[in-house]
Amino acid sequence: MVKIAIAGGSGQVGREVIDALVATKKHEIVILSRNVKSAIGDNSSGITWRAVDYDNKNSLVEGLQGIHTVLSFIQLLADPQNTAQKNLIDAAIAAGVKRFAPSEWGSASAIDMPWWSGKDEIKEYLKKVNENGKVLEYILFQPGLFLEYLAAPYKTAKHLEPLGTMIDFQNRRAIVVEGHDAIMTYTTVKDVATIVARAVDLDVEWPVAGGISGNRVPISELLKIGEKVRGQAFTVEKVKLEDLEKGVLTASWTLAASHPSVAQDQIEKMMKVVLIGTLLSSAKGAWDVSDAFNQIVPDFKFTQIENFLAEVWEGKP
């Protein structure tokens, strides 16, 4: 049993992981909260809350006393200068925390995805704190895209909300980059949460590369699966890489659903940015994550993409 602190635990992915950790009945879970009123005990489920000020390192050091592992789910759009995460890392070191997982939970690279640019900055920050000798063991959990997003608009996880992508199963359509059959990684959030719960139990040192590869498929194969489970071919629109590089989207449609962290008056602009960024980054290999964690837990059976999608879309109009 170890004591685990969760930063950003009210978020969708964080809550999925918390549920998986609670289900093991092995660990004491501490949720760090900015809201003092929320910082109340809930020992019946093995969860306690601690009020912290992410702008105050001393507050964070106090909140991390006795913590073995920190899992961060801090929303990057709410921390544009990465102040909260940098302070959390510094405090973890000062408090003697052994393991740290920054707010990754996506692609192997943030190239052409400005909303995630903070991830690269945090990676460099973590490298720097260990440059003169290891003071903090850390891992980059990277599961690619959540497979549940291909079920949009249907909700198929307890906490993760549906989000549209460039492959739209509901409307049987897709946007692809001309000349690029991008490799995509899709992993269910449930599998990710289960893997994280297993990772916490590992006695071996965590690898920095924490790729979690549930399903690794080229776009062309995903479209074949889509045709099979949806009963007809998808309408595929091709866009040019050079247009996307200029911020020009020539497709006839864009994303609809947005993350709750996006301000209402910014949704339309953000959805275009996200779609362009996802298309560009996919063409440049950002979503082809490693299978590093698959090799650490070779017995784990990941949810298979075709089975998942067939079950979701069976009988759907």
From TrEMBL:
Residues 3-273 form the NmrA-like domain. GO terms for molecular function: oxidoreductase activity. The keyword Ribosomal protein does not apply. Keywords: NADP, Oxidoreductase. Pfam families: NmrA. The keyword Lyase does not apply. InterPro entries: NAD(P)-bd_dom_sf (IPR036291), NmrA-like (IPR008030), NmrA/Isoflavone_reductase-like (IPR051609). Belongs to the NmrA-type oxidoreductase family. Isoflavone reductase subfamily. This is NAD(P)-binding protein. It comes from Hyaloscypha variabilis (strain UAMH 11265 / GT02V1 / F) (Meliniomyces variabilis).
